[in-house]
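Deviations from the work plan: none for this task. Representative record:
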Amino acid sequence: MESTAKDNPFLSFFQFIGKKTLYIINNLGAIAIFFTLAFLKIFRPKQFREIVQQVFYIGARSSNIVILVGLFTGMVLGLQLFYTLNTFGSEGVLGSVVAFTLIRELGPVLTAIMITARAGSAMTAEIGILRISEQIDALYTMRIDPLQYLISPRIAAAIISFPLLTAFFDLVGIFGGYVTGVLLLGVDKGAYFYRIHAYVQMADISGGFIKSLVFAGLVSTICCYQGYFAHLLTDSHGAKSVNLATTAAVVYSCVMILVSDYVVTSFLM
Amino acid sequence: MKKYSLETVVGIFVVAGLLCVAYMTVKLGKVSLIGDEYYSLHARFASVSGLRVGNLIEIGGIEVGRVERLSIDQEDQMSVVELKIRKGIKVYDDASASIRTAGLIGDKFVKIEPGSTGELLKPGGIIAETTSPMDLDELIGKYAFGDIKKDDIKESK
């Protein structure tokens, strides 16, 4: 069969596509199984302490950077939208536009990308080093389930932290819009908050939180998966493979955040 | 940072986060925690063109509730609007409701003249006197074709 494929350019073309497709589907299946197993092991006993530890690293330690980014995102939104809306003479709706943009779209997405950069990369590197220094194998020999001990608390902590950090981001961003729109550019304060209150509906807010939960699952799974199987990379080994795994985890996470953002939005609309 | 234990930091983080979530859902999302602080009235219009669920209800320019549901009464071919109005706002049975537009191209809202002389409307009551929204398209069409009369404007008002 190999020989016929080599002889015939047509067949080798299809063989190439088939090989790639099988590779991708295999990987997706492995990630799905990885996530399901780790997720179910969250509910095993004695997980609480580990989860608190991870919420500290993923959530509490990330809140400073998320608040900073949220503030400046809100401020620049206030500035840009003010000048755009000013050409239509409708800067009164600034509040609702800023709030909608943040709650529906920018809040979940930018929070997820910031946490990927801050905590996701650290997750991959840490687990990758545990793998290449054979400490995960050591856990096996001590009859400790590495999936339950290392991965499940991280996924649980991500699911707890992402929505909370998104809420920080949204509120701080709305305040940032207030700083530029109302304090610097002179939009009416009452109009700014009234419009937010009048136009933002529960569906917008719950949509934003659904997004952040989806991102939490994606980011934590991709980052843990890349680190956990860093030793299986074919083109490198040792420290180099941790390097490649971390890069791949951050890139895949960011791409998947943006792709799934579109998919989830089209389902929610 | 070093003064606090890990648990304390996580506790502060989670509580602050939950407060933000609660603020967003209760204040911005208008989810009422304390059950029924609203009662509903119905109003029947010939047309509710442009009105949507969630539009404001005003009495004397002050927001008193929101449009809860829009439906059609198949028997009379009338549009029925369910209005959710804050408790404590009194509407009498000689009240009238009209659909207005905020500004020229703004959102529609329901304006209620609460009346004064009749009996108090109970939850589920019907506001009998209604005025449908002025159809701007139709008016412009009439103006363009030149058969607009003073009466038309008065009627649709």
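Chain B touches chain A at residues 6-7, 9-10, 12-14, 16-18, 20-21, 23-25, 27-31, 54, 56, 63 (CB under 8 Å).
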